[in-house]
Amino acid sequence: MRKILVGIKRVVDYNVRVRVKPDGSGVATDGVKMSVNPFDEIALEEALRLKERGEAAEIVAVSVGPDDAQQQLRTALAMGADRAILVKVTESIEPYTAAQALLAVVRNEKPDIVILGKQAIDDDAAQTGPMLAALWDRPQATFCSKLEVKGGVATIVREVDAGLETIEVDLPCVISADLRLNEPRYVKLPDIMKAKKKPLDVTDLAALGVSIDRGLATVLTEAPKPRAKGVIVKDVGELVDALRKKGLVS
Amino acid sequence: MSKILIIAEHDGKHLSAAISRCVACARLVPGAEITVAVFGADPAPVAREAAALQGVNHVLTIADAKHAHPLSAVLAPLVVELSAGYSHVFGASTTFGKDLMPRVAALLGVPQISDAMSVESATRFKRPIYAGNAIITVEVAAGRKVVATVRTASFEAVPGGGNASIAAVSPTAATPAHTRFVALSAAANDRPDLQSAPRVVSGGRALGSKENFAIIFKLADKLGAAVGASRAAVDAGYAPNELQVGQTGKIIAPELYVAVGISGAIQHLTGIKDAKTIVAINKDGEAPIFEVADLGLVGDLFQILPELEEALTK
Ligand SMILES: Cc1cc2nc3c(=O)[nH]c(=O)nc-3n(C[C@H](O)[C@H](O)[C@H](O)COP(=O)(O)OP(=O)(O)OC[C@H]3O[C@@H](n4cnc5c(N)ncnc54)[C@H](O)[C@@H]3O)c2cc1C
Ligand SMILES: Nc1ncnc2c1ncn2[C@@H]1O[C@H](COP(=O)(O)O)[C@@H](O)[C@H]1O
C-alpha cells in the first residue's frame, strides 16, 4: 500500500502584514503568528483524501525548520497525518537545502508520492518540489489542481498560464499542490488531543548528512516602495475625465 | 563577461512576450552576451522572432518531435548540457519557467533565484518575498552558476530589429520517459493576453456569478483590455484559473488596471503593484484596494459599469 510524504513548512500566517526590520537584516517574526504554509495544508488534505479512499496506507508529515516547527507538525498530525518528522535547522535555508534535506528523508522513508505546496508564502520561491524531483531523479507535477492515482501511475491536471494541462507520471513522483486542488478540513479539538500521542521524530541536517548550501546569500531586506496616494472621484463622469486626461482612454 | 542562456517559451508558433522582458533583464547584466535556446518540434519560426529581439546575440534551435509539448523532466537534462560554458541561465517567471528552472538548478547543484526584479551586478539581484511586502537583495557566491527566473512585470519588453545568428544544436543527454503529456485545454480566445496587455479589467467575488462576470468581459472589450480575476472569483468558478492575478496567480504591469468588486487583499495587490494606473470600483469606501488605487470610485458596480460603458462610447 502506498505511503505519502507531505512537506509542512512553518511560515508567518498569511493574515499577518509583515514588517521589515529597520536594520535591513530581515523581517520581524518575534511575537508574530506562525502557521502551516497554506499550500501545505492543501497538500496534506489531498494525501488524507487518498488515504480515505483506500489509495494510501500511511501519511508522513515532514518539516525542515526550527524546534518550534513541531507546532505545525502537531497541526498536521491533528489533521490526520500518521507520523511526523522534524529535521531541525536553526539557520535560515534556501529551498535547495530544504530539497536536499527532504531527499534524505525520502531515501529513508521510500514514499510512493511526495506532495508539497506549490510555493511557500514566505520566500515565494516555488522551487522545492522541482528541486526534490530532480535530485531524486523522479517525475514532478507542479501546480496540481486535480490528482488521480491508479496502479503505478498518477494523472495530474496542472494550472498553467495557458489554462489546464494534463500529464501522466510514473510513481514514485513529486506533486506540488495548487489552490484549487481541494479545501483543507478544519482541525477538531478531539483530534488535537489524539495528535499529542502520535509519533514525532526529531532529527537534524547533520544526522542526515546534509550541509547547508551557502551559494546564495541574502545581503539586505528592504521595505517596498509605497505607491503614491490616489484620489477618490465622485462619479463616472469624473473617472472618465481623469482617464482621458492621462491618455488612458479615448 | 557574462554569458547568459535564456530558455525560450512559446506556443509552437510565437515566442512568448515574457521572453522579450527576460532579455531586457539579461541585458542589464554587465558584459552580457545573450543566447536564446528554442526547444520545439519546429523551432524555426519562434527562433526567427527571438533573433529579432534587440540584445540577443545568438539563437540555438533544438528540434525534436518530443518537444511539441515541453516537459520539464525532459528539458532539464538538455538545458544542463547546453548550459556548459554559460555563467547565467535565465527563464521567465511563468508557470513554464517556475516548473523548469528549479529542476535545472538542482541538476546543476546550485540554488536558484526566483522572480529577479532588478539587476544590481552580475551576481547580485533583488527579488520580492512575502507577497512583495519585503524586497531582498541576494548574492550568488563566486564561481557558482546563476540560475534565475525573471519577474517579467519588472522589465519593459525590448524592441525588435535585431539580427542574431541562428544555429541548430543537438544535445545528447538521456531524457526520461516517466513523464508524459496528455492534453492541454487552453481557452481559445482572441482577447489580449493578460500577462502582456496594456490594459486589464479584473473582477472579484462581488460579481456573484459566472453570468454576471460577463459584464467584466464587456467592459474589457470596450477598452480593448485583457480580463483578470481575484482568487475568490476563480475559486467560485466565475472565471477560469488562468485569469487569476496575484501572489499565486499572474503578476502583471499594465498601463491601466481596473479592479471591480475586489477588496484588495495583499495576495491580490502583489500582482498589480507595477501597474501604472490602478482604478478601483468598490461599494465599500474602506476597502484596502483604495490604498493603492490612483483613481477610486465608491459605489455599486452593477450601476457603475453600465454607466462607464456608456460614457466610454461617447
Ligand atoms: C495562500 C493564498 C494565496 C492567495 N493567492 C491569491 C492570488 O493570487 N490572487 C488573489 O486575488 N487572491 C489570492 N488569495 C486570496 C486573498 O487573500 C483574498 O481572499 C481574495 O483576493 C479576495 O477576493 P475578492 O477581493 O474578489 O473578494 P472579497 O475579499 O470578498 O471582496 C469583494 C469586494 O467586493 C465589494 N463589493 C461587493 N459587492 C459589490 C458591489 N455590488 N459593487 C461594488 N463592490 C462590491 C466588497 O466591498 C469587497 O471589497 C490568496 C490567499 C491565500 C491564503
Ligand atoms: N523547510 C521546509 N520544510 C518542509 N517543507 C518545505 C520546506 N521548504 C519548502 N517546503 C515544501 O516545498 C514547498 C515549496 O516551497 P518553496 O520552494 O520554498 O516555495 C512548500 O509548500 C513545502 O511543501
CATH fourth-tier homologous superfamily of chain A: HUPs
- Beta-strand percent range of chain B: 25-35%
CATH architecture descriptor name of the largest domain in chain B: 3-Layer(aba) Sandwich
Strand content of chain A: 25-35%
Helix content of chain B: 25-40%
Give a quick account of the main beta sheet of chain B: strands, pairing sense, barrel closure: 7 strands, parallel
Helix- and strand-based class of chain A? alpha/beta
Tell me the CATH topology of the largest domain in chain B.
Rossmann fold
- CATH architecture name of chain A: 3-Layer(aba) Sandwich
Q: Topology, please?
A:
The complex is a heterodimer of chains A (250) and B (314).
Chain A: E1 3-7, E2 10-12, E3 34-36, H1 38-52, E4 58-65, H2 69-79, E5 83-88, H3 95-109, E6 113-117, H4 128-136, E7 140-150, E8 153-160, E9 163-170, E10 173-177, H5 189-195, E11 200-204, H6 205-208, E12 216-222, E13 231-233, H7 236-245
Parallel strand pairs in A: 1-4, 1-6, 4-5, 5-11, 6-10, 7-10
Antiparallel strand pairs in A: 2-3, 7-8, 8-9
Chain B: E1 2-7, H1 17-27, E2 32-40, H2 44-51, E3 56-63, H3 72-82, E4 88-92, H4 95-108, E5 113-116, E6 118-119, E7 124-129, E8 134-140, E9 146-150, E10 165-168, E11 179-186, E12 199-203, H5 210-223, E13 226-229, H6 231-235, E14 256-260, H7 266-269, E15 277-282, H8 289-292, E16 295-298, H9 301-313
Parallel strand pairs in B: 1-2, 1-4, 2-3, 3-10, 4-9, 5-9, 12-13, 12-14, 14-15, 15-16
Antiparallel strand pairs in B: 6-7, 7-8
The structure holds flavin-adenine dinucleotide and adenosine monophosphate (AMP).
Description:
The complex is a heterodimer of chains A (250) and B (314). Chain A is of the alpha/beta class. Chain A is globular and about 65 Å long. In chain A, helix 3 (95-109) crosses helix 4. In chain A, 28% of the residues lie in helices and 31% in strands. Chain B has helices at residues 17-27, 44-51, 72-82, 95-108, 210-223, 231-235, 266-269, 289-292, 301-313; strands at 2-7, 32-40, 56-63, 88-92, 113-116, 118-119, 124-129, 134-140, 146-150, 165-168, 179-186, 199-203, 226-229, 256-260, 277-282, 295-298. The radius of gyration of chain B is 21 Å and the shape is globular. The mean pLDDT of chain B is 96. At the A-B interface, helix 3, helix 4, strand 7, strand 8 and strand 9 of A face helix 3, helix 4, strand 5, strand 7 and strand 8 of B. The structure holds flavin-adenine dinucleotide and adenosine monophosphate. Flavin-adenine dinucleotide (FAD) sits between chains B (204-206, 230-233, 244-249, 261-263, 265, 267-268, 282-284, 287, 300-302) and A (14, 38, 121). Adenosine monophosphate (AMP) binds next to helix 1, strand 4, helix 3, strand 6 and helix 4 of chain A.
